[in-house]
Amino acid sequence: MPTPEQMVLGANRILVLCHTSPDGDGIGALAAMGHILRALGKQATLACADPVPREYRFMPGTDAIVQRPEGEFDLVISLDSSDLPRLGEAYDAAKLAHVPLLNIDHHITNLNFGTVNWVEPNSASTCQLVLRLADGLGVEITPEIATCLLSGIVMDTRGFTTPNTDLAALRAAERLVAAGANISDIARKLLVQRPFSMTKLWGDVLAQAHLEDGVVWASLPASLMAQSDASANGLSGLVAFLAGVEEARVAVLFRERNDGRVEVSLRSVPGVDVSGVALAMGGGGHPQAAGFTLAEPLADVEAKTLAAVRALLKGSGQADG
Ligand code: AMP
Ligand code: MN
Ligand code: MN
Questions:
Q1: Which residue stretches of the chain have pLDDT < 70?
Q2: Which is the closest atom of ligand 1 to the Cα of 266?
Q3: Distance, CA 80 to ligand 3 centroid (Å)?
């Protein structure tokens, strides 16, 4: 099997993809890879099935990200996605099935769908893997690349506060700051700032949150969403806030989309692994942060998910607090 470096060096027209409903790690890795590939003289097309959320557009190079890539490619690179369907319509299987695929990811639930799979569940972010790839390829870390990659680390560790924060994440961050990334500016844009409409939406959702048997949960019906310009980034902050409830071991946020599908976000304390529940529902994630999407009515998704979480907590007993 070729190494990831050999795959990149052997290709010329490269399609780089990240998952739908993108977060800062997916978009940061995607934009950084664009800069890295162009530094090597490669043709890079960057795509994500959903538009880049406004909060991530400060990362240099995100304006080049398209939703439906066109052209011929001799390599596809998937970033931060644990399965092929999660790439959405940006991956046209009819056209790309015969093109080699390099799968770079850090989800413990990754289905190893690539020709070559570089999956490190112990890495706090996919952006750290992209940094190592840049090093392996001899590409200099410019301030633009550093800003994109540090954004992924800050996002996936929520500013170095989640249990996946480790020495490797801190050391990568130190290098990226030295290379020109502004860490407080990135943290403010990704984690602190939100529109007034989103702040009000948090209030509406929190006002009807429930706490039952160690599970805190809340729902966002599509009707509530429609009244604000709320985006998914603000909602990842909301589920993190819910996960701060002292009495809870698991936090769940249900979000009904306009197309009727329901996105479910799960968070847990160390010792409770929610990635298996997400995987069983067709999604994926990490032990302490996972998610899935179901095309079922909101009330049914709530009932099904809460039953699965209750069974998980019963199984994990009182192993920890
Ligand atoms: P979220 O709750 O959307 O912030 O996602 C938490 C974690 O679960 C992230 O690592 C996501 O990549 C993963 N995740 C969320 N939804 C899905 C899904 N539908 N399929 C696979 N992984 C998901
Ligand atoms: Mn992601
Ligand atoms: Mn990630």
A1: 227-233, 317-321
A2: 2
A3: 5
- CB of 284 within 6 A of ligand 1: the answer is yes
Domains belonging to the chain, first-starting first, are: 4-191 (3.90.1640.10), 196-316 (3.10.310.30)
Which tokens is 101 given? 């695929």
**Residue 229 confidence (pLDDT):** 55
Q: What is the pLDDT of residues 167-186, one digit of tens each?
A: 999 999 999 999 999 999 99
Residue 67's Cβ-count burial label (10 Å; 0-12, 13-18, 19+) is middle
pLDDT tens readout for residues 249-275 = 999 999 999 888 999 999 999 999 999
b/e code 32-49 from CB counts within 10 Å (16+ = b) = bbbbbbeebebebbbbbb
Q: Is 126 in the pocket of ligand 1 (CB under 6 A)?
A: no
DSSP assigned state of 92:
-
What's the rounded Cα separation, in Å, for the pair 23 and 46?
15
As residues whose CB is below 5 A from the ion ligand 2, the structure lists 23, 25-26, 80
- Decide whether any atom of ligand 1 lies within 6 Å of the 293 Cβ: yes
Q: How far is the CA of 78 from the centre of ligand 3 (A)?
A: 12
